[in-house]
């Protein structure tokens, strides 16, 4: 089972290797309980893109068989081993800080790229359900990100800094409800404005690593996060690096102020029209069933601007540059 899930994990400590083995043993129990297609979510096949009519389930979105209506918003992959410290990100263990902010990694969900995720995120911010803290895909990414980073540095020669959890709003404190935690900051690249953001993706397709190849284009659901990271970190460009055991691809994305303005407006509606009013009511009253008792301020499955943001995301993805794509060490042109 380990070979099936993580065939190319090497040079790990004995302790972490045992944990990886245990994760592998979980797959048989967990994968049949999923209602999403991780291939659609994590690996765009043959350059396929998501359009406004092709919304997919989020990795943290699950559906329980229990009768409670809240169970469908709670993660299924909650085995204790998934919360083991050695499987968490070596730098970005900022779960407590994230609870009280809307972070870049949740932007696509907050506007409705995955309809059920929007309500789930709302419940998380109210404290009605536990926030999404990881699954097999995120554990895989945490384990392999260091290897991916070293490959990126080898390919580009760039040096990387690792910033702390960044809160937006240095110039406008009223925007401090937004935050981000990038994978790294690129110091300098010849011919580009000083400093960029690094975002690393390590796709996971139910452990079928032999079927995982570097992306040919950036999935649309990654664009809100990418633009949010650049805005919050105040950087003009991003290196978006995709690593797989079979190769990697490097894209360059540029900051788009018009895109951010539309995105921020939708995020603001989610936060100030749904999250904050609900939190205020909860602070003054005993709320036992927010889905029913707070129905009037429960968010719709999609923001009214979601379709437009999806279309604009396609334009951003189309305008990004695929700088490098390699498979098994060979450059693909």
TrEMBL record:
<dbReference type="InterPro" id="IPR011604">
    <property type="entry name" value="PDDEXK-like_dom_sf"/>
</dbReference>
<dbReference type="Pfam" id="PF09588">
    <property type="entry name" value="YqaJ"/>
</dbReference>
<dbReference type="InterPro" id="IPR051703">
    <property type="entry name" value="NF-kappa-B_Signaling_Reg"/>
</dbReference>
<dbReference type="InterPro" id="IPR019080">
    <property type="entry name" value="YqaJ_viral_recombinase"/>
</dbReference>
<dbReference type="InterPro" id="IPR011335">
    <property type="entry name" value="Restrct_endonuc-II-like"/>
</dbReference>
<protein>
    <recommendedName>
        <fullName>YqaJ viral recombinase domain-containing protein</fullName>
    </recommendedName>
</protein>
<dbReference type="GO" id="GO:0006281">
    <property type="term" value="P:DNA repair"/>
</dbReference>
<feature type="domain" description="YqaJ viral recombinase">
    <location>
        <begin position="93"/>
        <end position="232"/>
    </location>
</feature>
<dbReference type="InterPro" id="IPR017482">
    <property type="entry name" value="Lambda-type_endonuclease"/>
</dbReference>
